[in-house]
């Protein structure tokens, strides 16, 4: 399809551990990413996120399977300036200024964005004359972001982009990312900050043990994998486990908490057909879904795992 940005089929990457045994860091991944999507890539440490990103960027070759970007190889897409990446480490010379760092890398691109535009979009204008070595970890991440957008790429890949940033810097970074997204760029980002994925990603891909555990719209992942909780003080004659849509029940004092994926229906039933009081509803969070889906359980799954476009 013309609007397919990334297509991975049967992607496997094998390594040897310290004892010489082979293991698959990425183990049979099938993923398709369409133009303009904003995707959060989540998973515990060692799940295979960075290895998957490295293959999409052409930094490492698959042991088997294929990965295509914009219908060609990753190297072709990068050569044409269609991919920009912010990786966790590397790529900065400590004794250059921020301005000279960006100017130097800009010289390697055919049609780089104007220097002042890049400094502004990366929130680096006030740091332009500071040496890289004097920049904090979060500021150095913003420099990497500036280098990633120099070619005005169609695809941005971000591996832990806000690592080392404080809360204010993370907020500023994501505001700038919203500007990138509004221009129609495809954005794929891996993050440990689950609230970032919940607030920014339209689609979530969770990986565990090198495999895609769940792939679907963010709201669907949260709703299906992390059911809501309805809590109320129930009359003695109401049996919580027999109420419509209740999956599990816990009792703390006189308050009963019921887990359900039909919170509206359950609340309506409690308020109109019982004498329940003090009712509250709390929606499942993406963090709850993350914990539920990436624990080492073979049955962890999601109805939307066969995400297609």
TrEMBL record:
Main location: membrane
GO molecular function: ATP binding; ATP hydrolysis activity
Family annotation (InterPro entries): AAA+_ATPase, ABC_transporter-like_ATP-bd, ABC_transporter-like_CS, ABC_transporter_ATP-binding, P-loop_NTPase
GO biological process: response to antibiotic
Compartments, record wording: Cell membrane
Statement: the UniProt record of this protein carries the keyword Acetylation: no
Superkingdom of source: Bacteria
Protein name, as recorded: ATP-binding cassette domain-containing protein
Keywords, alphabetical: Antibiotic resistance, ATP-binding, Nucleotide-binding, Transport
Alphabetical list of Pfam families matching this protein: ABC_tran
ABC transporter domain residues: 6-234
GO cellular component: plasma membrane
Membrane topology summary: Peripheral membrane protein
């Amino acid at each position: 399809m013309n609007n397919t940005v990334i297509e991975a089929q049967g992607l496997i990457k094998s390594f040897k551990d310290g004892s010489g045994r082979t293991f698959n860091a990425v183990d049979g991944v099938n993923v398709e990413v369409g133009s303009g999507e904003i995707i959060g890539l989540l998973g515990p440490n060692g799940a295979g996120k960075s290895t998957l990103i490295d293959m999409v960027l052409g930094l490492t070759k698959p042991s088997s399977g294929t990965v295509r970007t914009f219908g060609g190889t990753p190297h072709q897409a990068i050569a044409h300036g269609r991919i920009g990446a912010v990786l966790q480490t590397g790529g900065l010379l400590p004794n250059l200024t921020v301005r000279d760092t960006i100017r130097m890398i800009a010289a390697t691109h055919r049609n780089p964005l104007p220097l002042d535009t890049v400094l502004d979009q990366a929130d680096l204008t006030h740091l332009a004359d500071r040496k890289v070595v004097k920049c904090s970890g979060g500021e150095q991440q913003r420099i990497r972001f500036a280098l990633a957008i120099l070619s005005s790429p169609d695809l941005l890949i971000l591996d832990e982009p806000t690592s080392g940033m404080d809360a204010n810097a993370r907020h500023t970074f994501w505001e700038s990312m919203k500007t990138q997204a509004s221009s129609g760029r495809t954005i794929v980002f891996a993050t440990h900050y689950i609230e970032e994925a919940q607030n920014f990603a339209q689609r979530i891909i969770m990986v565990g043990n090198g495999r895609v555990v769940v792939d679907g719209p963010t709201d669907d992942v949260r709703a299906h994998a992390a059911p809501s909780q309805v809590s109320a003080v129930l009359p003695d004659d109401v049996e919580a486990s027999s109420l419509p849509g209740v999956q599990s029940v816990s009792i703390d004092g006189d308050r009963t908490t019921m887990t359900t994926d039909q919170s509206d229906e359950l609340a309506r039933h409690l308020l109109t057909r019982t004498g329940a009081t003090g009712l509250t509803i709390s929606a499942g969070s993406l963090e709850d879904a993350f914990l539920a889906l990436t624990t080492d359980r073979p049955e962890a799954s999601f109805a939307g795992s066969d995400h297609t476009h």
